[in-house]
Amino acid sequence: MSQEKSLLIAAMSPVTLDNVFLSTDLDGTYGSNRAVGNRSQIAANNDIEAIKAWLARFTDTKTTFDNYRKEAERLLLWSTIQQQKSLSSLTHEDLLLYQHFLEDPQPASRWIMRDSRKFARANPEWRPFAGPLSPTSQRQAIVILNTLFSWLVNAGYLAGNPLSLSRQRARKAKPRITRYLDEGLWLDVKQTIELLPKETSREREHYYRLRWLFSVLYLCGLRISEVVENNMGCFFCRRTKEGEENWWLEILGKGEKLRLVPATSELMMELARYRREKGLTPLPLAGEIHPLLLPIGEQRRQMTRGAVHAIVKQVFKDTSDRIRLRGDDCNALADRVMAASAHWLRHTAGSHMANKDVDLRHVRDNLGHESLSTTSHYLHSTDDARHRETEALHKIEW
Question: Residue 121 class from Cβ within 10 Å (0-12 exposed, 13-18 middle, 19+ buried)?
Answer without folding.
Answer: middle
